[in-house]
Amino acid sequence: MHNHQQQHQHLSIVDSLLMQMFGRPKGILGRLGGFILAHTKRDFTEWVIHLLEVQPDDKVLEVGFGPGVGIEILAAAVSTGYVAGVDYSKEMVEQARARNAKAIETGLVQLEYGSVEKLPFADDTFDKVLAINSMQVWPDVMVGLREIWRVMKGGGKIALGFTPHSGQSRTGLTEMLTTAGFTEAHLVETDQGFCALATK
């Protein structure tokens, strides 16, 4: 009986930790959250990157890269291109930089601490942009989307991916993209989640 009680207590602690880990990750919980996210999200991340049809010479930006798994996959997909990332968690920037240290050394990858509302990049820089389980925590979605639109090249593609634990609703996503200036906005779904795609 004692053991069962302990287990139950443990579960409620885990629930309260999840929010701290996956909200805006900090400290040891952020690190732990990063490792868990790194493993659960890889398949879904690969699917979103596949939908973007990343080419070897593409310049790609990931907004809210977390532990840097997507960055790792992208770095393997582009050989003559370039991969950039922005995340507002210093903990995640450190973790992702460690994970992608070699690619950063060679200049293939650049990871910055910062916000989607003020991207540290010039206009018309990127061919592809992705954000996975990120948009639902942006302070202002429209400002973020317009800023992404600004740093994208004409004809570039954006992908916003969400797994069920993101809490993001499918409703109104394509309309938001259209309002921000994108065209051909549409949703693609998989058993692991869904993705909104659009073109500049």
Automatic annotation (TrEMBL):
Keyword Transferase: yes
Keywords: Transferase
Presence of the UniProt keyword Transport in the record: no
GO molecular function, one term: sterol 24-C-methyltransferase activity
Domain of life: Bacteria
Cited CDD domains: AdoMet_MTases (cd02440)
Domain named Methyltransferase type: residues: 61-159
Pfam families listed in its UniProt record: Methyltransf_11
Gene Ontology biological-process entries: sterol biosynthetic process
Transmembrane segments: none
Protein name, UniProt field: Methyltransferase type 11 domain-containing protein
Organism for this UniProt entry: Chlorogloeopsis fritschii PCC 6912
Species classification: Bacteria, Bacillati, Cyanobacteriota, Cyanophyceae, Nostocales
